[in-house]
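Box 4.2: Ligand-aware structure prediction
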Amino acid sequence: CGVFGIFDHEQQAGLETYYGLFALQHRGQESAGITISDGKSMETFRGMGLVTEVFRQIPEKEGFIGIGHVRYSTTGSSVSSNIQPLQAEGINGSVAIAHNGNLTNTISLKTRLLQGGATFQTTMDTEVIIKLLARSKERRIEDQIKEVMSEIRGAYALVVCTNHSLYGVRDPLGYRPLVIGQTEKGWVLASETAALDLIDAQYYRDVQPGEIVTIDEEGLHSEWFEAYRPARLGMCSFEYIYFARPDSIINGQSVYEARLEMGRQLWKEAQFDGDVVMSVPDSGNVAARGYAEVSGIPYSVGLLKNKYMGRTFIKPGQKNREIAVRMKLNPIRCNVEGKRIVLIDDSIVRGTTSGIIVRLLKKAGAKEVNLLISSPPVCYPCYFGIDTAERKQLIGATHTLEEIRKFIGADRLQYLSEEGLARAISCIPKKDMCMACFNGDYPEVLDTEGQKKE
Ligand code: 5GP
Ligand code: SF4
Ligand code: MG
């Protein structure tokens, strides 16, 4: 998911939040929502679909505080009741919340709340957070947030607003990113810096793991969740590999630069030779450039991506999956024919897409397709907000390298090593990075119930 928040006296919070969400669209295409406050009252506008589909018109409500959310479902099914932000009326007035991440102890918290008489309108873990917030007896919102933080486990980058203030919160392990930006008259919070660029906000700094940032009339100040200081952090490496935009900067490192380095590391490790380096657009583009640069093999475009693909109706079944890939990608025959291709993509999850792409290139006359992946094999599910499927669906978990190569139909196949990946994400020490979907080393002890996924 993507989250955004703004506190700005221009009274255009709705419009600015719309722009912010538009820049974060890649983080979730299922639904979108905006909450606006004018200091007295709060209103939430939400719908299923892309930001431009949901907001054919910008909400008319004027306001100086806004938060927004684009959803990519992990927990909770894809239905309209599960759209964020969620708004609630507490003892201290209205509060709204937008959440990126996934809690790992939702079931036990929910059971406790249900036993206490609470009812739930959605199946989202985020509703647990807002219920816990609304029930806190603390007076200050910051203390309410700390109380909730002591109960919830797992991944959360939160943007919260009341009729007076905006809050940004990052879980103590810092799984998901959250940055602070500064406008002429106010402040912005966003999952990625790309959202700051669009509204001309200057990057200020990242919200730190375990930090609660408050933005109000007095400006910006921060407090810390002290009750739990983990021995290691768990910043998501997949953000750099695939999820974030290459024009964003996370923890001070350019995502583009990290991907370029993944490509360079691939050359160091694999040294696959060929006539051309090509990428699977768009997720493999930058790593392929890095590989071409250090290998000296020319970069060429082998697959053209249809810009108008958007979200398409995909029927289940292998034949339909193949049509879906072909709707999106088409080989450029003159670049492919007779060539020994070094093909670069970011990751293999189920393995179906890669297989279809290799067949497409061979049909277009490729002499060899040697596939390189700019991350290690995905072997374990993610419980922290990125949907990498169940373990039994992960081809890396159930098959050897040689079996995967055969299944995909590539002439050669190699993945980037964990060490190579860690070298590319140079801004985070390896011990503070989450690579659990590759190595099963989850940064915190998982509640066994937390592993149940809907
Ligand atoms: P698969 O191996 O499952 O057929 O497809 C892997 C491709 O899906 C990769 O090239 C990557 O760009 C993309 N991908 C990687 N992670 C995710 C994810 O979490 N969600 C979605 N929708 N696509 C992903
Ligand atoms: Fe990111 Fe993988 Fe960790 Fe999930 S398990 S937070 S996708 S590195
Ligand atoms: Mg891809």
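In the box above, the bound molecule is iron/sulfur cluster. The mean pLDDT is 93.
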